[in-house]
Design brief:
By secondary structure, the chain is an alpha+beta fold. It has 2 domains: about 220 residues, Porin (Beta Barrel), CATH 2.40.160; about 90 residues, Alpha-Beta Plaits, CATH 3.30.70.1070. The strands form 3 sheets. An 8-stranded antiparallel beta barrel has the order 2-3-4-5-6-7-8-9. It has a 4-stranded antiparallel beta sheet with strand order 12-13-11-14. A hairpin with a 5-residue loop joins strand 6 and strand 7.
Length: about 425
């Protein structure tokens, strides 16, 4: 009796699914809508896993083969209706558990949502069409358990799942899916526990698409999203395009002007940097000249502090240690004074105060014309070179004198 009810229910479901064929005959032109499928896989009913994706039994059945088939109809490229039949067996996985065998047969009506158009997954690849589904139906069981009489019963089964179709050609698709089956029964494993039993399943199979030669299954067709345009929409679009062109032209013109200004600014900046570098060079030169002048002032101050006293006759009684340029020597004081006056004029522009640095010193019967005193030997160079322009035998003499010449110059140092 129970099996007869099952068969009648299956025939009724097939009849209901076949009615849209005539109602939508005109819409079938150019597409396939009907699919017959066959599949196989593994059921998963494991105990002690806290109700995960592997199902939940009180007495574990483990992984068992299951088989099934279905017939489907594509109402739209997104929505598909399906009637599916499946069968398999549960039995105790471990020899130490209470023995049981449950040969089950089920059927469901399922609603499938194809994401190829819904989520536009075709933008990734057009060879895959992922889908989601929900099913509601009846699970019929023939249970044999140790120590219990054989019995048959049925339970409502609710199934969510996910899968994907893989395109082979317009006639055949391959598919793989996972489902988790929730039942309204606590005794699928022969043991009445606290919670309803549930089991998972992984299946793979083939879809055979039925329809006109060359036509594509409706759920594989790409539905580009769009809205019909009116002439008003076209006019508005053209006006917007013209405005975009105008704005783009203005932006390009402004960009050109900005580039020209940038070029001018870069040129002026380069010119200013060049002038700054020149001014910095001149400043460095002035700093160097100022330092030289300050050094010369300090040298003159030191020479003044050394105290070479020149009397009215242009003569110096004592010579300090240092370097001197000896210009001329004579036994006639008046001749020596004439040479001193000429040398003073000659040294203008070379020495800052030539009157205090050009003098006459008497050594025995000789009157000698000197330029000095210089603290460093190189300082004598300009004065020596200028003096030799007139007195070619001018030379540099330094005090104190060597030991063997000190007696010769003793009177000029006393």
């Amino acid at each position: 009796m129970f099996r007869n009810i099952t068969v009648l229910t299956a025939i009724l479901a097939l009849t209901l699914l076949s009615t849209p064929k005539n109602l939508n005959a005109q819409g079938d032109e150019g597409v396939k809508r009907w699919t017959i499928s066959a599949y196989g896989g593994l059921s998963m009913a494991v105990s002690g896993r806290g109700g995960g994706f592997l199902g939940s039994f009180d007495i574990s059945s483990g992984y068992r083969p299951m088989f099934g088939g279905s017939i489907s109809y594509d109402f739209t490229p997104i929505v598909t209706g399906q009637f599916t039949l499946f069968t398999g067996r549960f039995e105790n996985e471990n020899s130490g558990d209470p023995a049981y065998t449950n040969n089950y047969f089920g059927y469901q009506v399922r609603g499938i949502v194809n994401t190829n158009n819904l989520l536009q997954t075709y933008t990734i690849t057009r060879s895959l069409n992922p889908y989601l589904f929900l099913g509601l139906g009846v699970l019929n069981s023939d249970l044999e358990a140790a120590g219990q009489p054989e019995r048959s019963f049925r339970a409502v089964i609710f199934t969510p799942g996910v899968g994907t179709k893989i395109y082979i050609n317009n006639w055949v698709d391959f598919f793989i899916q996972y489902e988790l089956n929730f039942t309204r029964s606590k005794q699928l494993d022969g043991f009445v526990g606290d919670n309803n039993n549930r089991f998972g399943a992984v299946n793979a199979g083939l879809n055979f698409n039925i329809g006109k030669r060359g036509a594509q299954l409706y759920s594989w067709q790409i539905q580009e999203r769009g809205v019909p345009l009116t002439q008003e929409d076209v006019d508005r679009f053209n006006q917007a395009a013209d405005r975009v062109t105008t704005v783009e032209s203005r932006v390009n013109d402004q960009q050109r002007r900005i580039n020209e200004l940038d070029s001018k600014i870069d040129s002026r900046t380069s010119t200013l940097e060049s002038r700054i570098n020149q001014l910095e060079g001149r400043q460095d030169n002035y700093d160097e000249r100022l330092a030289n002048l300050e050094q010369r002032v300090e040298d003159n101050a030191q020479r003044g502090r050394r105290g070479l006293d020149v009397d009215d006759a242009g003569m110096v009684r004592n010579l300090a240690d240092g370097h001197y340029v000896q210009v001329f020597a004579t036994t006639n004081l008046q001749v020596a004074q004439n040479v001193r006056r000429n040398t003073i004029e000659m040294m203008r522009g070379v020495l800052e105060v030539p009157e205090s640095m050009v003098f006459i010193a008497q050594r025995r019967q000789f009157y000698e014309v000197f330029i000095g005193v210089f603290t460093q030997f190189p300082e004598t160079a300009n004065a020596l070179r200028t003096a030799q322009g007139t007195h070619r035998d001018a030379f540099v003499i330094s005090f104190p004198r060597p030991m063997h010449l000190r007696d010769v110059y003793r009177d000029i140092r006393d």
